[in-house]
């Protein structure tokens, strides 16, 4: 039976009516209406649905909406602040790290979680941090260089 | 997914529900295994799904010198990977944790879930086996401690009764001077399931001439992860020489009873057991 | 020429929206009253449909439409051969074939209801081996095949042989006789899946006039429109297919996926219907690359001169022809490689089996044959004791040489690619002395085939609008094509806006596929821009009292060549145009690679009228092989690609790097595994595409051998990235440990087995 869930997404509170077993990714996309979070496989293998849960990257397709209550959710829509792109977003654009764009939101959130913890990662740490975000377009080269460049440009 | 869903904050209530539904209920903490199983139709939708993720009593990763590590039922795999104490005292456990899925999955999946799911390929289990860990099973009738070695009955089958849940894993401190290693073979370097997983705990005597302690566990090569006790004897009391290690590796390979599946043939898995047992043993012994 | 926009690594136009999550992909769209469709697929590889009982499903509240093969017209569709219906009629030919479909108010309900449809089948023996399928008494996958319409003249087909293409040059027997060394080898390649991260999807909606609009992630909306007509017999003028940005395609989204069923359900329910495929449906039921068996015989002179080549290719077609005839024919054509061999006989055959219909995936038949001949070439080099780089350089084609099929090649950069990639990688052979080794492989491909049209409007304010049927797959088509228009018009990139991939709003384009967008659509856009510009020049000539031929457009102005001060701005011309010609200056153009006459003694059964604008590349990889486990580690990768002219160099690099990594996955790990016609690893844990930790940095070298017929000299770059990667890796593994793997993928298990068989080396 559907219930009302209170979710905190990007600092705002949303009340949604949903089955408690609905995957979080579907709730974020279709009940909250933030479609920047993508669904590529539904089984936690591709990472397109990555969001930050209390600052940590998780695959939102492997969470039920009920499990997300009381947690702080960050989606791609919450990464830019006050109309200013996050340095990662700017670096992805500048370095040609975005091609089809479908993995990009999840990729940026994984990268953000990395830089939040490790502001100056080595290349290998970057690759490990995004190993759960499959990209089929770029060969990862420009994504890795964008993340390293963003790290250099962090305030 | 059509089922009764409960998300409780009390252990007692959860045990009550478990007593009511028994095997018709499934527990989820992180939920990563069960939700994938349901999606891919390898796991049946249970009549009742109980989320224990909000029972704060079950949380927590605690280490005490002397008694060792306690891994609460809500401890994420990712916490084992990053905890400074785990990395220092149980480096192989941190290493095995790091090989599971993606960072995103490790931030959801729990260590207890990885154990209770009873996958033959569960990465944490071989390490926990050589560390001689045990689990605390709690039901309405009370609680009991089950040695991990006796916990697994088959793929997805454990010694838990349908009314019980695991509240924590206890990992005793490794013997003084012992070193551990975990090695995993998979196609991808990350984001992959073990074709073979090997954990070794080893310790030399005070003169560093003979192997005084040697424990070996294998993953993905039998219906459950196994402690390879019969093989361990080969090297106990002997000098840590290449030849003896090779004998151990050979014996482990013979002991392994892997299956052929889409991921690998049985023959290849046996071959990899040999290689990884050799390498993991050397790492554990040479670092002493 | 002093170029202002072309040749610059300008920021892509589409990426700022993508980086913040604002881009709308098909699954992000929701229409009022929209239903969710679900497809019931065949569980059997080959069976007669005896009965379909939909009554239970229809009874379920919320189910609004159910369709089966009996409910749709008897239309059959296909790009080369009309052999497929939108839903199975009478029999199923592969596991996963759509049998019935329904639409319900929620996706969950649709999932539940679709399981209530009961189908009675009478199972038939399955045809699974393409070689056995060619035997005279083999069961037929399509009994009535020879009566199906085929679009190209001279098709060779019979029984389960879908098509055959033959190329002959010189005298093979003589060539082999004159050779000092004759080597024969057999290779095989697996099926791999494009695995775009965005699943296929569509929303279809009818209006009261009977017009249907289909929003979808199609690489080829104009082809989707045709297939909807063919399969469902809806008049084409009543079909609008409007493409969204794609989350990758790589060939897999060219021919229709869920659009036909979505339209059928929308028609019955009279509501918008959305279908989004699951990842399992993607991997198990949607158009992977053809597995192939390749037998090669090569004759070579002692000094390394390639003298004769015989190739027999068998492509497993699966149950429906799809792009198969084109793929088989093109693969056959590429089988000589970028080398001049005087005596050649190539036979490519495409054979029906009861497997999923294989289709276009990056490379279009070329990766299979290139893996074979580039591996084979290294085996020859080994036998002759010649360095593989040297052997290749000795035999490469050059400007003015004739391609198989008769086309004269005008921009051949292969020699430069080989030289530059060897330098970049510091080419050296290990020859099995360590666990490390280097390998090289080359490739040729095309970028010109069939037709693209374009319209360019210069608006009243002097900005310009481009209309093209090309879709933005993610490869940067929007930006690259805008750069071409901007350069031609003398406008900065920000003055150009492009409308793409809409059958009503943009002119015809034969799909964003075959590495053809930059070359074919680029040519059409450049000519359409020139056409629009000519209108402005006419007006400007009057204003400036000059001849239109003496005018140039630069920096938003038109002026007399050599006298930039004597000019008039686009803005002023735009306003004038409004009063002089009655609106914006509109230019249009169609670019077509015209069919050529071919000599029937040399070319038989080639499905294309002509292909052109050949592209070339060479890749070098270094690997380290673990001799105990057989595991291959990629240490470094270098790729030199001749693209004619890089319109946007940063973008070109991205194409090469992305292609290389797909090639590495194809080479080492990716394999759809079949069990009695069923794909049993249909998830992204068991179908293993490379992750960031599996691949190294990829060093790219852009070679620019200008193509005289290309826009600003440009050719394509989309597919080649992966075509030579597998053989380069196979050759590197051989160099490292002395074992030759001839069937893809090169798994660690195969390497270990080969090492064991070999026992002693060095």
Describe the fold and architecture.
With 155 residues, chain A is α+β, with helices and mostly antiparallel strands. Chain A is 33% helix and 16% strand. Chain A has a 5-stranded mixed sheet with strand order 2-1-5-3-4, sandwiched between helices. Chain A starts with a strand and ends with a helix. With 288 residues, chain B is of the alpha+beta class. The mean pLDDT of chain B is 94. Chain C is built from 19 helices and 29 strands. In chain C, the strands form 7 sheets. In chain C, strands 3-5-1-12-9-10-11 form a 7-stranded mixed sheet, with helices on both faces. A 6-stranded mixed sheet of chain C has the order 8-13-14-15-7-24, with helices on both faces. In chain C, a hairpin with a 5-residue loop joins strand 17 (451-458) and strand 18. In chain C, helix 6 (221-232) packs across helix 7 (259-269), helix 13 (477-489) runs parallel beside helix 14 (517-544) and helix 16 (649-668) crosses helix 18. At the A-C interface, helix 2, helix 3, helix 4 and helix 5 of A face helix 1 and helix 16 of C.
Stretches with pLDDT under 50, minimum 5 residues of chain C: none
User: What structural category characterises the helix and strand content of chain C?
Assistant: alpha+beta
How many helical elements of chain B? 11
- Sequence of strands across the biggest β-sheet of chain C: 3-5-1-12-9-10-11
Overall mean pLDDT of chain B: 94
What fraction strand of chain C?
25-35%
Tell me about the largest β-sheet of chain C.
7 strands, mixed
Shape field of chain B: globular
Biggest sheet of chain B: strands, sense, closure?
A: 5 strands, antiparallel
User: How widely separated are the two ends of chain B?
Assistant: 52 Å
Span from first to last CA of chain C?
55 Å
Figure out the total of helices of chain C.
19
Q: Could you state the oligomeric state of the chains shown?
A: heterotrimer
Low-pLDDT sequence parts of chain B: none
Mean pLDDT of chain C: 97
